[in-house]
Amino acid sequence: MIAPTVEEQEAASQEIARNVEQAAAEEAGHSANRVLSAAGELSRQAETLRGEVNDFTVFILWALIVTSLRRRRAASAALGLHAIRRAAAIP
């Protein structure tokens, strides 16, 4: 009578162990899927940010070029005005 009870207890323990192992494996799979999804979202956000930084860099370079051209134009105009004034002062 004790032997069958021990065998039943052992079988029940093995079944519980299998169920716990299966539940742990399923949870690990779900966790892995969540990590994969988060990594994909992070990759998309990084690509968006890369594009925005690139656009910003192009805008800054464009602004520097325009500013430089305006300064050169203003300097040339000032030099031209100075030359006209000198020429007008020559007897």
Q: What would you say this structure looks like, in words?
A:
This protein starts with a helix and ends with a helix. The chain contains one helix and no strands. It is rod-shaped, with a radius of gyration of 39 Å. The chain has one helix at 2-89. The protein is mostly helical and 91 residues long. Helix content is 97%, strand content 0%. The mean pLDDT is 90.
Features:
91 residues; 1 helix; mainly alpha; rod-shaped
Q: Ranges with pLDDT <50 over ≥5 residues?
A: none
Radius of gyration: 39 Å
Number of strands: 0
Q: Give the structural class.
A: mainly alpha
Shape: rod-shaped
Total count of helical runs of at least 4 residues: 1
The topology string of helices and strands comes to H
Helix amount: over 70%
Distance between the termini: 136 Å
Average pLDDT for all residues: 90
% residues in beta strands: under 5%
Strand count, sense and barrel status of the largest sheet are:
none
Question: Brief overview, please?
Answer:
By secondary structure, this protein is an all-alpha fold.
Topology diagram in text:
Blueprint: H1 2-89
